């Protein structure tokens, strides 16, 4: 059952990504995360003259954000599963995958980077 769920979620998320494209930046979780990180860096004054301190601040911030995102996702998925059972959980997984996989945008950016590398 787990393998079927994983295959269903991934294939549906990828199919939706190719069918509808990536959401605009205002609705994309990666954009939200970038704005959140920018606000945290400015509010907590994480930039430093010392590169070691700045790297340490970056590592702590990355661990904090990754852990927080995982915990929030786990709690939300358990809550959705408890209310809507497997179907709701599968829909949630597809939405998360669709909104976080930016296949078409990655392809465009990789092609631009490749062109830039080939020009030099």
Question: In summary, what is this structure?
Answer:
This protein has four helices and no strands. The chain has one domain.
Layout of helices and strands, plus pairs?
Elements: H1 2-20, H2 29-43, H3 51-100, H4 103-119
Helix pairs in contact: 1-3
What are the main properties of this structure?
single chain; 120 residues; mainly alpha; 4 helices; 84% helix; flat
Tally of discrete structural domains:
1
Uncertain stretches:
none
Topology pattern, helix = H, strand = E: HHHH
Strand content: under 5%
What is the radius of gyration?
18 Å
- Indicate the percent of residues in helices: over 70%
Arithmetic mean pLDDT: 79
What count of helical segments does DSSP give?
4
Overall spatial form:
flat
Describe the main β-sheet briefly: none
Structural class computed from helices and strand pairing:
mainly alpha
Write up what this structure looks like:
The structure is a single chain. The protein contains four helices and no strands. By secondary structure, the protein is an all-alpha fold. It is 84% helix and 0% strand. Helix 1 (2-20) crosses helix 3 (51-100). The chain has one domain. The N and C termini lie far apart (50 Å).
